Fold:
Amino acid sequence: MATVQAPAGRSIVLPEPLQLDSGQQLAPVTVAFETYGELAADKSNAVLVCHATSGDQYVASVHPLTGKPGWWDRMVGPGKPIDTNRFHVICANVIGGCMGSTGPASQAADGQPYGMRFPVITIRDMVRAQVAMLAELGIERLYAAIGGSMGGMQALSLAANWPDIPERVLVVGATATMPAQNIAFQEVGRQAIMADPSWQAGDYYGTGKAPDAGLSVARMAAHITYLSEESLTEKFGRRLQDRQAKSFGFDADFQIESYLRYQGLSFTTRFDANSYLYITRAMSYFDLAEEHGGRLADAFEKTRARFCVVSFDTDWLYPTELSRRLVHALNATGTAVSFVELSAPYGHDSFLLDVPALDRVVSGFLNQ
Amino acid sequence: MATVQAPAGRSIVLPEPLQLDSGQQLAPVTVAFETYGELAADKSNAVLVCHATSGDQYVASVHPLTGKPGWWDRMVGPGKPIDTNRFHVICANVIGGCMGSTGPASQAADGQPYGMRFPVITIRDMVRAQVAMLAELGIERLYAAIGGSMGGMQALSLAANWPDIPERVLVVGATATMPAQNIAFQEVGRQAIMADPSWQAGDYYGTGKAPDAGLSVARMAAHITYLSEESLTEKFGRRLQDRQAKSFGFDADFQIESYLRYQGLSFTTRFDANSYLYITRAMSYFDLAEEHGGRLADAFEKTRARFCVVSFDTDWLYPTELSRRLVHALNATGTAVSFVELSAPYGHDSFLLDVPALDRVVSGFLNQ
Structure:
């Protein structure tokens, strides 16, 4: 595959340079976004949905590169739990991403792609860009900020650092502090990309070669962590792929092997490897407690939002224990928070899949 | 690193070709091994220790390439749980390996290294080679067969397929049927190696280039699965490596990142990438039930050995549930089996580390 090119969609160029946590400035900054549903005259019904690592702004509309439905199509739309008959839903591609927001594939001042000259960003920087986008859209308050996985981290960062903006914060399968095991898995993914000679120290744009092999391996490794052992056994077990017997070779004999190879390969058709480096780096840096003097509760001192925290019993990547810690910190500041661990078989990916109990939780929380 | 070269040690060339599960024959077959302690005149005290994925025959002696103590030095030796004052301990490098036993780096009939022409082997093939080695050594019965992880699978395969040989079988942190999640992780490792252009379809021997980058990534990914989330948090947490603050770059900022990179890199100095492909393939194929008509209990119909099965509460790669299934199958055949889940913080790697309770279990079982 050649370099992934994002199609032109809706976007805003921020009027000011973005001051980053690293101390660097980023300018110009484009934020690409999609909206669903009408904004009320009093602007009281805006809901920001934040996407996860491999997501994008196409939360409820057809993805322009894959032709597939939006990644949360089941959750966002008319009559759905995040009801676009009622809410004005906004979803922006994170900076560092590759679907139209400024990222490593964007042009730097010298007219060449940034590549690895793109500054290392944080989750807070991603949110900073979205806050600036909201300002440009004339939206000062959000009815709700919602996200799963890395999207949940953004929702938390928004609540902690811009406490006046969200009235409700819904965090699904996420953490306030990235744990060591997740840092480890993400480091493997980055090393897989950087070990690919086609990566060329990040300067592969326009060369006709991209580190697809490395990105594919990174995606395969990550994908396993999104599933539960139970769902893998249920869905694939040790079943063979289109054959009666093992081949005694290195083809994908097992369905799970074939599935993973497909997941890895197809990811390279819609995602930029450098973006994967920057986005996972931002996640591994995420520590809301550290940002606020080492005490997580202090992060939420000023927020008046009410929270809803959801975990899944089979999510071993962001287990319930991490959500519980977050809830304890919210409790310590007297914040209104409801917390539920849902039972769902799909592991971390449960937030994206058919879990009717999650629909009810989301819908119920937005009606409070 | 250039191709890993195994130093010459003790070895036997098998007198007959090895008939493999694939239907192919392998010849000639060298089995490299080490022994510790004297063989009794009546040959009643032989203990076979089987090594895990990345192990070798140097169970209790200095590794000739790394200069480090044997991988189970704490368990095997004079006065230790597997007491070499009493037992004659034998440990052989598996075929497909790279420490002297015939593997993909060995010469094929045409005088060139096998590379990917080496036949795909199974766990039973590995055991078959060791059974032939024992015959050459004049050893018909084993006081015990012992192994952790892939070593445990070999011990199980021995008991199932050569039921007259072992009198005792000790299986630690292993399974009788490789589950889907483990197949998945191993597929990622193989894809990382095969994605490395230096792999050259396996024909890298003598080219001065080896797929070290791919092998390193494979090892990093595997290594995470050997540890527990608790031990990662305890040992590394989010601590930074030799710095006061994050670098806002892609260096190994976190200790866990630095540790994993080291684990990956150092592995390439002692392990052959093709061997990694073949050995993990053998593991993913392992299904003792399937080998015996689909019913695990039938695998143990003829064995008269007594068993001891050990799992660790923090081992999420080979969790207690898998050991329990094995024990149920053994129970179903009326086999004498003791089963214990030990509490140890180190995840799957617990079997290699300082877990005094395991010492007591091993020592107690060998004294029965």
